[in-house]
Specification:
The chain folds into two domains: 22-181, Jelly Rolls (Sandwich), CATH 2.60.120; 188-291, Arc Repressor Mutant, subunit A, CATH 1.10.10. Helices cover 45% and strands 18% of the residues. The chain has helices at residues 100-103, 109-119, 134-151, 157-176, 183-203, 210-217, 221-232, 236-252, 258-264, 270-281, 285-291; strands at residues 22-28, 36-40, 45-59, 62-67, 71-74, 80-84, 90-97, 126-129.
Length: 302
């Protein structure tokens, strides 16, 4: 399993519907390939509560280690990813909701004064929630209430969820209204990161040079390398290779030709694809296909 996105990393998954734009789900980091979900964003706000285990969560240029009982606020349109830690599995509650669920209609005072005040500020992309902070403890308690309601929804489920989310948002508003506004500086480097990732996502199946990537962010090659490594924790080249492997996984289930799959995701030769595949997946493409309960009807020799 892996996050499916558009070329600009916007997640394709629906989070509820227009009538009730809320999605409540239990997720397991170990269910994703290599215990990692790829960078993505969505217009919905996401609240996370760790039910068991621990996870490394990265939102924009911030990295957090969350353990059982911790929570996370991920703002609307914020790039984020997560991965399994060496300690193993992690089960967590994910609550995503569109901001309009809070404010009702466009340009209402609820939107302009209380909701957009937070969602439009890119310097507030995330906030970890800890039980030992009084107001955050209250938010975590509200999140757990949503979890309990989701297991056995009452007749007034939607109304209850709306009231709880409004209470949570009130706590966020009280907190963020006391924080300094660093939006201008934040927007500059976060947009640069998005530009680089979007360019790679849109061209991963082609030949990409460092010069191409740097041009996409309007910076020099050396600054591009330094900037990307600082914020992503890996080199540009490693990210391209990893992304190509991840993009190839669903293709393996639909094609009997490793050569064809390798070419579709930007590898010049099937042997190099298999080499990189084994580096990241710890098995060969054929072994992966067999483990998934699939078999080649006509294999291409490597």
């Amino acid at each position: 399993m892996q996050i499916i996105t558009q070329k600009n990393q916007k997640e394709l998954k629906d989070h509820g519907n227009f009538a009730f734009p809320v999605n409540i789900s239990i997720e397991e980091i170990q269910s994703y390939e290599k215990g990692l979900f790829l960078w993505h964003w969505h217009p919905e706000v996401e609240l996370t509560f760790i039910l068991s285990g621990e996870i490394e969560y990265q939102i924009e240029d911030n990295t957090y280690i969350l353990t059982s009982g911790d929570g996370m606020f991920c703002n609307s349109n914020s790039l984020h990813s997560g991965q399994m830690l060496s300690s193993g599995e992690c089960t967590y509650l994910s609550i995503t909701f569109h901001p309009r669920f809070l404010y009702g209609y466009e340009n209402s005072i609820l939107q302009t004064k209380y909701v957009s005040f937070i969602t439009s500020n890119e310097s507030w992309s995330s906030l970890p929630l800890k039980d030992d902070v009084s107001w955050q403890h209250e938010v975590l308690t509200y999140i757990q209430q949503i979890y309990e309601f989701s297991k056995e929804p009452p007749a007034d489920f939607e109304l209850q969820i709306h009231m709880i989310l409004m209470n949570i948002w009130h706590k966020f508003y009280q907190y963020f209204s006391t924080q300094p506004n660093n939006e201008i500086k934040s927007k500059q480097h976060l947009q640069r990161l998005r530009d680089i990732i979007s360019f790679i996502e849109g061209h991963y199946n082609q030949e990409i040079s460092l010069e191409d990537v740097a041009k996409s962010a309007n910076i020099c090659k050396s600054e591009c390398c330094r900037f990307f490594k600082k914020h992503m924790g890996m080199t540009i080249f490693d990210y391209i290779l990893y992304l190509r492997i991840q993009k190839s996984l669903p293709l393996l289930t639909a094609s009997d030709s490793i050569t064809e799959v390798a070419s579709m995701v930007g590898f010049a030769s099937p042997s190099y694809y298999s080499q990189i595949f084994k580096r990241y997946m710890k098995c060969t493409p054929m072994e992966y296909k067999k483990e998934a309960g699939l078999s080649f009807s006509c294999c291409t020799p490597l």
